[in-house]
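Single-chain item
Fold in token form
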Amino acid sequence: MNRLTQDKSTRRRAAIRLGKIGTGNPKVIEALIQLLDRIQDEFTRRRVAESLGKIGTDNPKVIEALIQLLQTTQDESTRKRAAESLEKIGTGNPKVIEALIQLLDRTQDEETRRRAAYSLEKIDPGNPKVIEALIQLLQTTQDEFTRRRVAESLGKIGTDNPKVIEALLELLDTSRKVPAREEAVAILEKIGIGNPKAITGLRKLQHHCNPFTRLLVAKLLPKITALTQSQTQQIEDDLLLFLQETRVKDTVDRYFSTNNPQKAKFCYHRIIACLDKLQEGRDIITRRSLLNSYLDIYQRIVYFSIKTGDLNRAFFYTELFRNRYLVERIAQHYAPLPNTVTPELAAQINQAKVTEKKRLQDYTNGINQNLDEQQLKQLEVRWQDAKKALETLYAQVAVIEPEFIAKTKVSPLSFRQIQSVLPSDTAILEFFFTANKLLTLLIIPEANSPESIPVKLNPKFIDKLAQTWVSNITAKTPSNKKEDEDIDATIQTISEQINQISDSLNLSTLLPHIPAQIQHLIIVPHKYLHLFPLHALWLNDHQRLIERFAVSYLPNLQTWKICQNRQRSRHSLMGIENPTQDKDLIFAKAEMASISQRQQFSHRKIFPGKQASKAEILHSATDTHCFHFSGHAEYNFQNPLDSYLMLSANSEENLTLNTIFADLHIPQADLVTLSACCTGVVDAFQPIEEYLGLPTGFLLAGAKAVIGSQWKVNSIATAFIFDEFYRQLEQTGNKAIALKNAQNWLRRCTDDELRERANTWDLSKLEPKEKFLLKLTLKRLSGTPFENPYYWAAFILTGC
């Protein structure tokens, strides 16, 4: 290819062959781009464009070459092929969108226009510029087939857009061909349900259109208005049900709770069933708002169950209350399709899942940003339409497997279900705050019911302690205070507060209830307890919890069961190393170097420095087994969806929780390790158990387990802890045990042992200045430098 044969047939065969074998190969891509630039034979150019479309996904040079071909060639077949290739590799790229929009204006060939319109629909659905360009094409072209094709595209991407509705009404009014008018009607039937502009426009059109169109409009209007009435009726029914249960609640609060606890428990159960129905399928912010007012119901029914000795029922209600949004979303999107489903239907479902996920997050983020009512309504309608599209596809699957729909629904696990999957060496410790006490439930293998462990704890005290804790971990260093002094103060404060929590919870009362064979403790915290390193608490005067047990954390036990079913390999590593190139994170390089040495990783993809773009991470993470981020992060207590992993000084490039919810898909990920500050924090001051944090996002994206930190961590201590963690993981295969061993190792290591370990790292990629700083830091270590829990206790494992 370098010498470029003059034989056209040979060139074409070479281009086709390279398109099959050269995916992602820079030399192959460069050779094809050169061939595209040098030849004039249009048939060969089309073959080259086709091959580039297969192997050049997200490659800027490929996109630029295809755009140039699109703009310079006069051959319509070549233009169509270039547009088709750009459609495959240029998703969301503004340059591609601009080039295709220009093509709509430049070409007079209707087939090329239809190809460009189709590509625009696929590349960036919902883009205002794309919608505007397609509307303009619909209004200017005289080709009826093109008008039908463009109308179809607008029906898919322009839901609830007033201009799209207007354009479709105009098509219905002006088209000379019956198929085009029928297409407009079919699309309006889908996207015009309850839309005032569509309904008003059709009513006006009814008075002056031709007889056939009048007949179409007459059939259409009742459909979109009748459905609106049906939706309104459902809203009214839900509201009446809610008001009825509210009156029941008032009656129970006034009379039954004092005089007849059993009747009160029955009534509260009814109210909870009502709330469960009303919140199902809602966005997380709406669910929070709905449940917030009824928090006391959950607390009271758990209290009644404990008081009457029904611990199995108490366990059921504590689980019913916890993070149902996360579980519902996972169940809906990860229910395995039957093998009998056709590849075409499976592909449609997967695309519909992606669209619904994006639309939901757009709507959720709109609520979070306090958009006005009209904007929120548009976002909600787009989400509802995406949900309906997915549900329609699921209904097709249900024809093949009637039980499929049931598999996408969730219900809380019973105590018996938990017992059936609980390993013999594992116990579960659940916490739940009632109005005035902390309930602690212990589940051990083969027990008939949970065991209630008495804990004397003042909720007001723990509330105050949590407020102080968050102030400390989020505080900025004062300008008049040296950074070293600030770190020393943080170290001292965290150690003291861990001691205070230990005294308050007094976990020594727990030990007599746990059999000797238990090696692993699953902790399900509640409220403020999510913030604290419970594994670092003292069991007695000389032993911490992590010395006795390997510890993992979970938002609820339904998530635990889901994670257990995620059978994953652990052969590939994707590493993101100090993407902001912060000079204070020199140990991030050492950390990544030590981790990537592990033999368990047969495939490694490391993004050092600025190579880690958001688009590249979202694309590359799809098939990775272990995702390791080493850099800066920030948790936002005011708006958790704005919490992020920092990828750049440009905030638009950061990997926010909102982006993770909407765009990240990691169905092969066995482990996500977030080696950065506050990556394990959740907004635990929410009165309800629908917490948001980076681990929530990664679990929803498909990860089996996430390791994150509960405060601002020390760079060198973190490098050592993950070096040992991955060593241990390679030996034991168990994440919780590996993290336990790594944390206990670090807290006991002497300065000489740490320097000896650092000598095993491959530091060949470090700059001379970085090596000097690393050696200087190591030289300054003395005694047992990382004994304080500040250095080793921050990281927790969520999942399994």
Notes: The longest strand covers residues 426-433.
